[in-house]
Design brief:
The protein is mostly helical. It contains four helices and no strands. Helix 1 runs antiparallel to helix 2 and helix 2 runs parallel beside helix 3. It is elongated, with a radius of gyration of 20 Å.
Length: 131
């Protein structure tokens, strides 16, 4: 129903992005397809802005469109290609920044966990050979 003419492209794009997050959790292999549909809707929404006015862009007023870093884990090449096919430079940058933000957050969390494991391992008393 999101492809119907009754739904505005901006609303469809937002709904597809929400669905993408849901699909990541329940059916990751389909998340990439739903993301492609979001990109099509974003291109349609941005296409309705022939004068390239920033105020009429998809997701105008925001610097970042949040995306889950798990998208890259599913199919990095396909997601990158979809991002590169976004016609509006501003929308493309907003999505890439959203993906970068979540990826960096995940990286920082993983790095902290690894550092804590290293500290815990150093605190363990060394066991003498033969005891």
């Amino acid at each position: 129903d999101l492809k119907s003419r009754e739904i505005k492209p901006t609303e469809a794009a937002s709904s597809y992005l929400v669905l993408t997050d849901m699909y990541i959790q329940v059916q990751p292999t389909e998340a990439e397809r739903v993301f492609r549909d979001a990109v099509k809707s974003i291109n349609t929404a941005d296409g309705e802005n022939p004068n390239y006015l920033a105020i009429k862009d998809y997701y105008s007023g925001k610097d970042v469109i949040p995306l889950a870093s798990e998208l890259l884990e599913i199919d990095e090449i396909s997601i990158t290609n979809s991002l590169n096919s976004i016609s509006s430079r501003r929308s493309r940058v907003r999505l890439k920044l959203g993906l970068l933000e979540s990826s960096l957050s995940k990286y920082v969390d993983t790095k902290k966990m690894v550092e804590e494991l290293r500290k815990a391992k150093k605190k363990e008393p060394s066991k003498a050979i033969g005891n």
